[in-house]
Design goal:
The chain contains 6 helices and 14 strands. The chain is α+β, with helices and mostly antiparallel strands and about 240 residues long. Strand 1 and strand 2 (about 15-20) form a beta hairpin. It binds thymidine-5'-phosphate (TMP).
Length: about 240
């Protein structure tokens, strides 16, 4: 597979064309941003960790029946993925109150829910990724009813699989963000990444934060937290 021109540079990844029109190459960066790009920094080693962690999770999810965009890990930071058109929804699943949920509803962080929650944000940087409900997404033509039903089912399935996996490595899966895409034949697949950038991980015993909140909230030991999560996930 040959790497061709860069198609897109995002906050945490670059995307390249390849000699296969149905396959893209993703290159993970150490750059970190928060609060819609307002806060900028570098997390040394993050790109390599997020690449390996994402690919491990995607392969585990595939085995559990969740279709993903994953094709092949090429190097420390580079992975081949299926070309998809991204459904512009950030799909957020929560098991424990934290972050914007705690803030919006005026509750403390750490309330364990009886049932997981789902919410969507409209992926639009200019608008600051506003919260959106499924009726609004339909009205705006962002997704079809069927797409939203499939995405909802898959997102809860991902939660089931990941919650169990993380429990076994001593981590509470607090919440996470997923993105889905449509392949050329119209199949909805899990895309983007699953990493400490996009999940909240709390140590089950100490409740220490082992994710990007260490960067967002200036808690220190950011690199250590990413390393620790990679060790627990990949062994
Ligand atoms: P929130 O509590 O800030 O809404 O975040 C919920 C989850 O989504 C959390 O695990 C972090 C993740 N997330 C992203 O992956 N990208 C984002 O831009 C934001 C705001 C959150």
């Amino acid at each position: 597979m040959e790497k061709r021109e860069m198609l897109y540079e995002g906050k945490a990844k670059k995307v390249y064309a390849t000699d296969n029109a149905d396959v893209l190459l993703v290159d993970y960066k150490d750059d970190a941003t928060a609060f819609n790009g307002l806060k900028k920094g570098t997390i040394t080693g993050k790109g390599a960790i997020n690449n390996r962690v994402t690919n491990f999770m995607m392969q585990m999810l595939e085995k559990e029946g969740v279709p993903t965009h994953f094709v092949k890990e090429l190097s420390e930071r580079e992975t081949l993925v299926k070309r998809v058109s991204i459904v512009p929804l950030e799909v957020i699943i929560r098991n424990i109150s934290a972050g914007s949920f705690a803030k919006r509803y005026g509750v403390e962080e750490g309330i364990v829910f009886n049932e997981p929650t789902i919410e969507f944000s409209y992926k639009n940087d200019d608008l600051g990724d506003p919260l959106i409900n499924s009726y609004h997404a339909l009205a705006l033509g962002i997704a079809t009813k069927e797409d939203i039903a499939t995405i909802t089912l898959l997102a809860f399935k991902v939660n089931q699989v990941m919650k169990e996996f993380f429990k076994n490595v001593g981590v509470d899966l607090v919440d996470f963000k997923l993105e889905f895409g449509k392949t050329s034949d119209g199949t909805i697949v899990l895309a983007d990444e699953i990493s400490p950038d996009t999940c909240r991980f709390w140590d089950s015993k100490t409740h220490e934060k082992l994710d990007k909140d260490r960067f967002r909230r200036d808690l220190g030991n950011v690199e250590d937290a990413y390393q620790e999560m990679m060790k627990r996930i990949l062994g």
